[in-house]
């Protein structure tokens, strides 16, 4: 657990030329920071779990030509940290739920979520069937 806690205290550090300015979120695999380098702003995922991040990087690289996932810019090993540089997208579902003061999503929003999920599954089944075996 100590390793996970250390991942949550990286704000202000530099990884691969990016300044980690804000913790966006964290979970089982590590932490995601807002990373800036000049005018470039990305999401920088940091983990101690090399194998899991390598699988995620491979999946995202297969999806890189689609509009169904964030673009991956790099996969990097920096000391004890394994990192992925990703396109910074909007807020996650948890953040959207918190802003909605516990009200359920309206029908229009749910339809948009479902459309995106179906588009992703459609892309996976038509273009990259091998990804389903990863």
Automatic annotation (TrEMBL):
Name of protein: Protein kinase domain-containing protein
Xref: Gene3D superfamilies: Transferase(Phosphotransferase) domain 1
Membrane-spanning parts: none
Protein keywords: ATP-binding, Nucleotide-binding
Gene Ontology molecular function, alphabetical: ATP binding
Residues noted as binding ATP in the record, renumbered to the chain: 45
SUPFAM superfamilies reported for this sequence: Protein kinase-like (PK-like) (SSF56112)
ATP-binding is among the record's keywords: yes
Keyword rRNA-binding: no
InterPro entries hit by this protein: Kinase-like_dom_sf, Protein_kinase_ATP_BS
């Amino acid at each position: 657990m100590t390793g996970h806690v250390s991942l949550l205290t990286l704000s202000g550090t530099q990884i691969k030329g990016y300044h980690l300015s804000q913790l966006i979120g964290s979970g089982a695999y590590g932490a995601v920071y807002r990373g800036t380098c000049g005018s470039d702003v990305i999401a920088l995922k940091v983990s101690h779990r090399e194998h899991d991040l390598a699988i995620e990087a491979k999946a995202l690289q297969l999806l890189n030509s689609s509009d169904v996932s964030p673009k991956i810019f790099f996969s990097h090993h920096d000391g004890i940290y394994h990192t992925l540089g990703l396109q910074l997208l909007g807020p996650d579902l948890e953040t959207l739920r918190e802003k909605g003061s516990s009200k359920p999503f309206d029908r229009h929003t749910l339809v948009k979520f479902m459309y995106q999920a179906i588009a992703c599954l459609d892309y996976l089944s038509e273009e990259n069937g091998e990804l389903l075996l990863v």
